[in-house]
Amino acid sequence: MEPDTLLRDTVARIVEIAEDRRAVALKGTEIVIAGGEVEADRVPLDAIAGLVALHPGPSWSAAALAALTERCAGIILRGPNRESRTLTWPVASRRWPARIRAQLDLYPPYARHLLRQLQRAAAAQRVLALETMGGGNRLRSLVAAPQQLRGRPTVRRTRDQIEAEIGRYYWTWLIGRGFRRNPRRADANEVVNCGHTALRIEAMRAVHAAGLLPGVSLGDRSGRGGLVDDLMIPFRPVVELAAAVFIATGDHRVDTRIEAAFARLMVAPLRGRRGPVQIRLGVAELARALARCFETGETRLKLMLPARQDPDALFALLDTTQVAHA
Questions:
Q1: Which residues contact 68 (CB under 8 A, 6 or more apart)?
Q2: Which of 259, 129, 119, 249 is nearest to 199 (CA)?
Q3: pLDDT tens-digit profile of 189-247?
Q4: What is the CATH architecture assignment of 3-325?
Q5: Looking at the whole model, is its pTM more than 0.90?
Q6: Where are the domains of the chain?
Q7: pLDDT digits 0-9 by tens, 26-43
Q8: What is the 3-state secondary structure (H, E, C) of the chain?
Q9: Which one has a higher pLDDT value, 49 or 101?
Q10: In terms of Cα–Cα distance, which of 83, 66, 80 is closest to 25?
């Protein structure tokens, strides 16, 4: 099977193992999840986009792990607050030696050039997200305003200073004054963590299928962060907007409806500038575009990103169940 064809399956779902002491095994073409002697669930391999398990997680058979990774299904072990702890990565890929060599030999200024494109796209998506929630003008004013230092002339701020200020106000403007972003807190932060986990699964699948090394970031060549997180950058604001809509309806803790809604968001036809776009296909295309850049030296990334979204359409995702639980 060609790696790229794995990402055309838009009906694959996210399977979550929400209970401890489960056993995951492969039987034929199905993944079987059992608790003791009782079978809890049975899911066809072709229907699994990703698998999320509570850390330290269940016991795994080698055959199940091999089958899931060969299909490029993301496997994430999460903490009790739904923060990702561990990711998996298969070393087998049809073109991985050449692409990984090109990725590792990437000229650092060129890598940062690609990363800046992702960051600029994310900044534009933040503006769209805040516009949807009624705060877009405040973000534009913050970016455009000069900095007045006491006793000194007015100066323009650096990009890092602007990003720091955006980070300070972004979550307050998006979700509300009482919200403080802390992935380890057991409150509405769990909803954001859940959305990021769903997006991370899609990024993992895309990196696997593109034959790239997930642990080497464009911005930090030592490996912290990783390419998986880089792929998430321009799509994070879309997921965070959905989280803000869910939180605004009173859902401050994660349940089956929230998990199902984020799984549905990954494959939902969102409004784009040139027609419908899909997060799953957008992330996959971005991974392939980066692979081409690594091999050919292309300087421009073509991104498939959503335009301004309708909050009612995001809220409607809560009514669709696409997540299996064991």
A1: 31, 45, 48, 51, 75, 88
A2: 259
A3: 999 999 999 999 899 888 888 888 888 889 865 445 689 999 999 999 999 999 999 99
A4: Up-down Bundle (1.20)
A5: no
A6: 3-325
A7: 998 899 988 877 888 888
A8: CCHHHHHHCCCCEEEEECCCCCEEEEECCEEEEEECCEEEEEEEHHHEEEEEEECCCCEECHHHHHHHHHCCCEEEEECCCCCEEEECCCCCCCCHHHHHHHHHCCCHHHHHHHHHHHHHHHHHHHHHHHHHCCCHHHHHHHHHCCECCCCCCCECCCHHHHHHHHHHHHHHHHHCCCCCCCCCCCCCHHHHHHHHHHHHHHHHHHHHHHCCCCCCCCCCCCCCCHHHHHHHHHHHHHHHHHHHHHHHCCCCCCCHHHHHHHHHHHHCCEEECCEEECHHHHHHHHHHHHHHHHHHCCCCCCCCCECCCCHHHHHHHHHCCCCEEC
A9: 101
A10: 66
Q: Which two tokens stand for residue 55?
A: 């850390």
